[in-house]
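Troubleshooting entry. The earlier prediction with tetrahydrodeoxyuridine gave an output that would not parse, so I re-checked the input for stray whitespace and re-submitted. Clean input:
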Amino acid sequence: MTDQELIAHAAAMRSRAVAPYSHYQVGAALLGSNGKVYGGCNIEAAAYSVTLCAERAALACAVADGCTSFTRLAVIASGEGLCTPCGMCRQMLFEFAPELTVLCCYADQRSQAIPIAELLPFGFGGDRLPG
Ligand code: THU
């Protein structure tokens, strides 16, 4: 799976976004260590805070499929500028995959590869908790 293929998958997911409030469509494609790609899109609700980000939607699909280890993520949005995961998504991705490479994309599929540990410096992980 090349970076460009993963990004194309994320772009296809973006077209499934349910974003009637922000009009900001986001797509994500998460590559599992098992070689499978899990897609997600953002899903907004009228009760705004219930909204689910594309990255965590992809992660939920993967976990439901029995995959909990990941190598790369592509994330792409409809707006201008580089699409980078929000703080909540950074935390959740870091907990599952502290070595993850995040392909942050512009709307036209140009990308910048950024390690999750760089997006979330001094990240908090489960290894800090007792027992
Ligand atoms: N959003 C994502 O899907 N991922 C992010 O990392 C940032 C934000 C979504 C949530 C909401 O539906 C819209 O973008 C605007 O915040």
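This one parsed fine. The two ends are 37 Å apart (CA to CA).
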